[in-house]
Every structure is written in structure tokens, then in C-alpha cells.
Design brief:
By secondary structure, the protein is α+β, with helices and mostly antiparallel strands. It is built from three helices and three strands; from the N terminus they run αααβββ. Helix content is 45%, strand content 19%. Strands 1-2-3 form a three-stranded antiparallel sheet, with no helix packed on it. A hairpin with a 2-residue loop joins β1 and β2. α1 runs antiparallel to α2.
Length: 91
């Protein structure tokens, strides 16, 4: 694992902890920083990181707090408070 990948994992953990403490601005800053590191080093973000962050506002999503999760026919719809929706397939 590269240094950049380790740093992205660490920032994911910090964003999760900050969101759990209610500090949404700090969690968003961690998410933005992790995305920039991934772009610079041409790395793909981990699946769990992608699923729990909003692409539009960089918020760390917590279902029931700042995100709504709904099951539809063959996919999960995650809606952020900003209105952005993400759809993920499931079987």
C-alpha cells in the first residue's frame, strides 16, 4: 500500500469520527483533502469512501442524520441533504 493510499484511509477514518462528533465542516475538509490526494496520485477511492461521501458537497454521509437511504428495484438510492442523489446496484 502506498503512502497516499494509507493517508486516504486515515482521512476516511478521521472524516467518519468528525461526522460522528457532529463537526460536519471538518469532515467535509477531510473528504476534500482525500479526494485531492487520490487525484494527484491517480488512485481510486475505496468503495466505502465513495459510498459514504457526497460528490456534490463533499459531505460525509450518515444515514438518518444528513442522508436518506431508500431501496428501489435493483438499486439503492442515497440522497444527501444538498439534494444530490447517488444510485448503487444490488442483487
Amino acid at each position: 500500500m502506498s503512502v497516499a493510499a494509507e493517508r486516504i484511509d486515515r482521512l476516511h477514518a478521521l472524516a467518519r469520527a468528525a461526522a460522528a462528533d457532529g463537526d460536519d465542516e471538518r469532515a467535509s475538509a477531510y473528504v476534500r483533502l482525500a479526494r485531492r490526494i487520490a487525484e494527484r496520485n491517480r488512485l481510486e477511492l475505496p468503495r466505502q469512501f465513495k459510498r459514504f461521501t457526497c460528490d456534490a458537497c463533499d459531505a460525509y454521509l450518515r444515514p438518518g442524520k444528513n442522508a436518506r437511504v431508500r431501496l428501489r428495484d435493483g438499486h439503492v438510492v442515497v440522497t444527501c441533504d444538498c439534494g444530490n442523489q447517488a444510485r448503487y446496484p444490488y442483487e
